[in-house]
Write a structure and sequence with these properties.
The chain is of the alpha/beta class. It has 4 domains: 31-100, no CATH class; 118-182; 191-298, Nucleotidyltransferase, domain 5 (2-Layer Sandwich), CATH 3.30.420; 309-339, no CATH class. It is built from 15 helices and 7 strands. The longest helix is centred in the middle third of the chain and has 25 residues, at 165-189. It holds the Pfam family zf-C17orf113.
Length: 340
């Protein structure tokens, strides 16, 4: 009857009012640019119509699938923004970001280091110097203990901890990491690099490929040792893969973009026109120069020059015979020592 008279019941009025409230609420839920003020971490994706926290997306890897502000949320409420801003996960992401981008003295590690006593720093300096000496001179790790004992005899306060061969290995590891970091930073600043590679047999009669990098920075040319890698079979494919692996792990993944020259010995496996190591490395960059090492070239020239000299061959045979005579026989070696 009320509908026939053009009127509505109270329930229908309430429903219509409720629908209007819902529509009004849905219209209100949109992103406001003013929320970005004072919140550098907040980002609005216009394409997907979501907002997210860029700091959490970068730092909080383990929570990417269960935090809405990492994968993106459509809950456009200022309360939601404030709740995330005060959440524990967001604060942890800010702490990680500050530690990575802030100054050293402002980070937790920097403050902890500043609190160390001067005596402790001096002890660590002595320990690191001993470890650096062992690494530089190629001495065994077991020498670290007696080197620390010598420091104590000299009156140096080196402490009683971190003086074993295991800690020496740890110290040398971190020294090497720092040197590699410096090398990578210097090579990344340079525009061009050249690679020098050569193989050698180790004590276990295994082929080892060594790689050096030559670069120029601020007018100074520097050669850096990048690494060494065992090669299962010394053919062109395996050697080229070893060189690429060493360069990618020791320098950067885009090292080929700066490569201008490759220096090797004159072996056919290295300089072969059709299937040599240099040819394989130049596959993507044909303008890279292949250079025959001058020292190896001089050795070959000298060998070719004396090959036809009869007296040179006699001297070589004489020296080889003398070496074999005394090296293979302990009796002959003892007799030679008696003559001295």
């Amino acid at each position: 009857m009320l509908r026939w008279l053009g009127q509505t019941s109270g329930g229908e009025k309430r429903n219509e009012a409720g629908d209007e409230d819902i529509n009004r609420e849905m219209k209100k839920r949109e992103f406001y640019a003013k929320w970005l003020t004072g919140r550098e971490w907040l980002v609005f994706d216009h394409e997907n119509v979501v907002m997210f926290c860029q700091d959490c997306a970068i730092c909080d890897e383990k929570n990417k699938k269960r935090i809405n502000f990492v994968v993106g949320t459509t809950n456009f409420k200022v309360e939601a923004v404030k709740d995330h801003e005060s959440s524990r996960s967001h604060q942890e992401s800010l702490r990680i970001k500050t530690a990575k981008t802030g100054r050293m003295e402002e980070s937790l590690a920097g403050r902890s280091l500043a609190l160390l006593k001067t005596s402790e720093l001096e002890k660590m300096q002595l320990l690191f110097r001993n470890a650096h000496t062992i690494g530089k001179k190629g001495r065994p790790f077991t020498d670290f203990a007696w080197m620390c004992e010598v420091d104590r005899k000299k009156g140096l306060k080196i402490g009683e901890t971190y003086t074993n061969d295991y800690q020496a290995k740890e110290f040398i590891h971190y020294i090497a990491e720092e040197e590699r970091r410096k090398m990578r930073a210097r090579l990344s600043d340079g525009k061009f690099i050249s690679v020098m590679s050569d193989g050698s047999l180790d004590s276990a009669v295994m082929e080892e490929e060594m790689v050096y990098v030559r670069s120029a920075s601020e007018g100074k040319v520097k050669v850096d040792f990048v690494g060494v890698k065992a090669v299962s079979k010394p053919d062109a494919t395996n050697i080229a893969e070893a060189v690429c692996s060493i360069m990618e792990s020791g320098v950067s993944t885009d090292w080929k973009n700066k490569l201008v020259a490759i220096t090797t010995d004159g072996a056919s496996v290295m300089t072969g026109v059709n299937n040599g190591v240099v040819t394989k490395l130049r596959a993507d960059r044909p303008n890279v120069l292949g250079i025959h090492c001058m020292a190896h070239k001089l050795e070959l020239a000298f060998s070719d020059g004396i090959r036809k000299n009869v007296m040179a061959r006699k001297v070589e045979d004489l020296l080889s015979g003398l070496y074999t005579l005394y090296h293979k026989s302990g009796v002959n070696r003892a007799s030679l020592k008696q003559l001295n």
